[in-house]
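sorry for the late reply, my laptop died twice this morning and i had to redo everyting from scratch. anyway the thing you sent over, i finally got around to it. pasting the sequence first so we're on the same page, its 102 residues, then the predicted structure underneath. double check i copied it right bc i was rushing
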Amino acid sequence: MKWKSIMVKILDIGCGKESVAAQVFVGIEDKEVTRLDADANNTPDVLHDITQELPPELHRQYDIVFASHVLEHIDRNKVIPTLVNISRALKNLGEMWILVPS
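ok and here's the structure:
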C-alpha cells in the first residue's frame, strides 16, 4: 500500500532574501514555504507589515508559522498584537515557531 504524503504549508515571517524556514524544515519532503516580508527588496511572496492585520486570504492557511529573528525588531508595545496577527495564519492545531536572539 502506498501512503499519500501530506503537504505541510509553512509561512516564513520576515524571510529576508533567503528562507531560513526552508533550511530548518529541510527534512520535510512535501512542504510549501510562503515567504512574507515587509521589505520589497527581499522579493517576498507576500509583502506585508506584520504589525498590521494579515490579509484574510492568509488566515488559517498554514501548518507552521515561522519567525526567526523578527520580533526583536518590533516595537515592544506592538509585540503582543503582532503575535495575535501572525497566529491567525495558523490552521487548527498548527505550530508557531519563534526564534529570538536572547
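Helices lie at 20-24, 79-87.
thats about all i looked at so far, will dig more tmrw
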